[in-house]
Write a structure and sequence with these properties.
With 337 residues, this protein is mainly α. It has helices spanning 2-16, 42-51, 54-58, 77-94, 99-108, 117-127, 134-149, 156-163, 174-197, 208-214, 218-233, 243-261, 270-286, 293-300, 306-315, 319-330. Helix 8 packs across helix 9 (174-197), helix 9 (174-197) runs antiparallel to helix 11 and helix 14 (293-300) packs antiparallel against helix 15 (306-315). The longest helix is centred in the middle third of the chain and has 24 residues, at 174-197. The radius of gyration is 21 Å and the shape is flat. The protein starts with a helix and ends in a 7-residue tail after the last helix. The relative contact order is 0.13.
């Protein structure tokens, strides 16, 4: 009976989804072969694995844009991920794409992000001779680091979407392209909302030439982006925005970089965060024995460079854990007996 459930769902995908969608039964497979689930198609199973992972739970204490903001309603890396997932599912459903695949990619796309947002990523990229890129690290997280070195053994399509979610990449599936757009739409929308909440921006600051195309409020712009993406991509073997809306989104993104992402007030603590990350990196590079056993196995059994496994450890930390480790290692404590 259970086996029939998965097979029925796979047949339903073939009958209902767009001919351009990724069908579960046609997946290119996993890094390691394993028995199929009786109930869940492969992409739904990937989605569940990501949702139950430790790296996903740690996103709740990782910075999105504003470091340790005072207020309950500012976004974290976790809430950003959930908003990307919601955008992706809405678009995928409207276009009859594979929602499970889109959701799995969205939930996994930032698993390799550092503490302290892009400041943490910048610190590791600058100090590690091998560099550091959070999209590559997200793939390394699901392939190797999760489950104490066993990895999640996800499908090729999910791994491809995670790897190529940034502007520099291009996913091989339309669901991956949906997540790539959904990520940009989400952070432009919620980072502006947070900036307005924090008094860094006002709605009226957005240039009129942008507002005339995509709306005068954050809500109007979010709605316009999604509707335009769906309308322009419907029944096509591609995911795209109309030229006018795509240009407006790029102008809005440049505006956000000028007024928020490079704002001295909003970014005033980032130098401290980078110094903290660099200090932890140097410490653990000298004290490799303090790293978890599964990372030392990567060093001893698989020949991974010490610099890489140190980045694995520090990059996976939450903001709170990184600060606690810094205090433990570098801040003197009162003597007592």
């Amino acid at each position: 009976m259970a086996m029939l459930i998965r097979e029925k769902l796979e047949r339903w995908e073939k009958e209902y989804l767009s001919p351009y969608a990724s069908h579960s039964m046609d997946s290119r497979g996993r890094l390691r072969e394993e028995e199929q689930c009786d109930i869940r198609p492969v992409y739904q199973r990937d989605r569940d694995r990501i949702l139950h992972s430790k790296s996903f739970r740690r996103l709740k204490d990782k910075t999105q844009v504003f470091l340790t903001p005072e207020g309950d309603h500012y976004r974290t890396r976790l809430t950003h991920t959930l908003e990307v997932s919601q955008n992706a599912r809405t678009i995928a459903k409207a276009l009859r794409m594979n929602e499970d695949l889109a959701e799995a990619i969205a939930l996994g796309h930032d698993l390799g992000h550092t503490p302290f947002g892009h400041a943490g990523e910048r610190a590791l990229r600058n100090i590690c001779p091998y560099g550091f890129c959070h999209s590559d690290q997200s793939v390394r997280t699901v392939d190797i680091l999760e489950k104490e070195g066993q990895g999640l053994n996800l499908t090729e399509e999910v791994r491809d979407g995670i790897c190529n979610h940034q502007t520099k990449g291009m996913p091989h599936t339309l669901e991956g392209k949906i997540v790539r757009y959904s990520d940009k739409i989400a952070y432009i929308h919620h980072d502006m909302d947070d900036a307005i909440r924090g008094g860094i921006l006002r709605e009226s600051d957005v240039p009129r030439e942008i507002c005339e195309v995509i709306g005068y409020t954050t809500g109007e712009r979010l709605d316009h982006f999604i509707h335009d993406l769906v309308t322009t991509s419907y029944d096509r073997d591609d995911i795209r925005m109309s030229p006018e809306v795509g240009e407006a989104m790029m102008k809005l993104r440049r505006f956000m970089f000028e007024r928020v992402y490079q704002n001295r007030l909003a970014k005033s603590e980032e130098g401290k965060a980078e110094m903290l990350m660099e200090s932890l990196y140097r410490y653990y590079l000298k004290h490799l024995d303090r790293l978890p056993r599964y990372l030392l196995d990567r060093l001893e059994k698989f020949g991974d460079a010490p610099e890489i496994i140190v980045c694995d450890y520090i990059g996976a930390m939450s903001d709170r854990f990184a600060i606690a480790k810094y205090e433990e290692l570098f801040i003197p404590k009162s003597w007592h007996y």
